[in-house]
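Q: What would this chain look like folded?
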Amino acid sequence: MTERTGGRTAGQLAGGQLAGGQLAETFTLRGGAPVRRLGFGTAQLTGGGYWGPRGERADAVAVLRRAVDGGATLIDTADNYGPGLAEELVAEALAPYPAGLTVATKGGVVRTSDSTWHVDGRPERLRAMCEASLRRLRTETIDLYQLHRLDPAVPMEEQIGALDELRREGKIRCIGLDTITAEQLERALSLTGIASVQNRFNLLDRASAEVLKLCETHGLAFLPWFPLANGALTGATASALDSVAGRHGATRGQIALAWLLHRSPVLCPTPGTGSPAHLDENLAAAAIRLSAEDMRGLDALGTPEIDRPAD
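A: My prediction, written as structure tokens:
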């Protein structure tokens, strides 16, 4: 969780603080609907290692509803969060889903404990996982279904083909890929229409910059995971962030999210939290308008922009 020292509130998001330049607030998924670029992720609604519950179920449901009430129109979850629990919470909080809300989930990873998991991209398993997600989410069609990991033991054509078949059947609307290289993305695009990529990318880690460029070229959404650098906004980075944050009356986390929104129009971060106050803080980051000077200073904090698979 980011350190908070005041910062903007969610109420300011709609309070006319868009002065200082226009910033794209929405992104339209290929084959899908427009979404507000700053969404909400559900991993932090589950316990350590994304295993079991975190706190009271009613509190998790309340945070999900607060996220949508606060303007989030992209909810990102996965079948292995819990496992199954996060999808159940999404359905309990939000089904039947309001018009304009996009629910994204992921399949292809099997969890057996809080520290043990394996990839399974066999077509029959992907189908079974997708159909289980449909039941948990209480929907007939999943808006965005993302392959959580490519299975190296199964040809890509078979994995993508299974998702394509589910799309033709109306069980999923858009296909996404999680944790891939630029070369893998190019290959996947030669097989079918892809709507999104979900790789690690944040203020400190730009290793997927080449994948981001491909997403910009092809009009794909890029959902960066660990958008707040998984708690690493400390040390020299924190000092630089504090300097920018002070000029905007914001927190470190808000500036890190604002940097993503300014970095590329296809970046759609979905930070997660179980705290209502932290949720409000995150959503309010969409109102921050960074200057060119701000961006130069923040850009200098990251890793070299080389492309490699995320861990």
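Residues 79 and 112 are 13 Å apart (CA to CA).
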